[in-house]
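During data preparation, a discrete fold description was generated, and the record follows.
___
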Amino acid sequence: MKKFITMLLLLVMSAILLAGCGTKETEKDTVIETASNDLTKVVISEFRNLSWSAVYVAYQNGYFQEEGIAPEFALYKDGPIAFQGMHGGDSQFCLLSQEPVLKAEQEGLDSSIIYTVLDTRLYGFVGAKDVKSVKDLKGQAIFAGMPGSAPYSFVSAILAEAGLDPQKDVTFVNLDYSASMSALSQGNIKASYINIDNRVEIQDMDVNILVDTSNPTDAAKYLKADVFPGEIITATSEFAAKNPDTVQGFVNAVNKGTKWINEHSEGEVAKLIAPLFQGMEEDVLAKKIAILKSAITKTGFISEESQTAVENFCINNGVINAPIPYNQVIDMQFVDAIK
């Protein structure tokens, strides 16, 4: 029996796509607008995650404006839905993980990955206090994001490594990411994906961290690579081809944000981007950034070797069924031309 209520997901996805961010006009083609102050308006689809702190630093420091760009954010529930929003014409750029991009590429929906924000993937998987190993999850309910997302693929890989069939041996529960830890503590689920910076929030919870890819042993076991550029920025291939100056300006701005993070303390980063994370205490934000900081890219560049690691992960976990030529989806010309 299929463990996910597919029709419910489809209805939720459709509703979110129709609603978008609620306050932003939909742009249905690749023609971009000029803001009233002669800056080029771009919309960025995202689901607000600290992995993309370089983008938020660029936004807060005015680096986009320095490059002639007026950015807006369109918030979505998850990466795959944000990605669909971009391809639906609601935005020009998307912040998400590689899995949805590669899957869509293989199905004929062309994208250009233009920058990586992290040089490795910092994911975790936590279980309830009575879950001592992944094998204990057979027959249990767990959370791993939505099907097609990077967390879903990651948790599926963990289950398979433990000898469990992700489609038969567990029940995936549909939750918001923000609700998963509450569901775990209340016993509604037995395990959950987390971004590893969420160790800060769960440090007082009675849970077991089953997998932590910030640990080199777990990274080698599940990612099988030291460099794993899974969290990226993408645009449609059509947009990148027709608007190279805008894409270059966008990459320039994000790279300035990357450099700023690498040159400042986690406290300074937290203070700067705190307005974009309302409801999160600044000291908590600083602790989370400290966990992520060692993985933040220095250059944004994705090598062929590191892309092969991502590709192999996706093939091994059924996201795609064959390699995708590097230059078909990875476009490093803008990183190479950073000023």
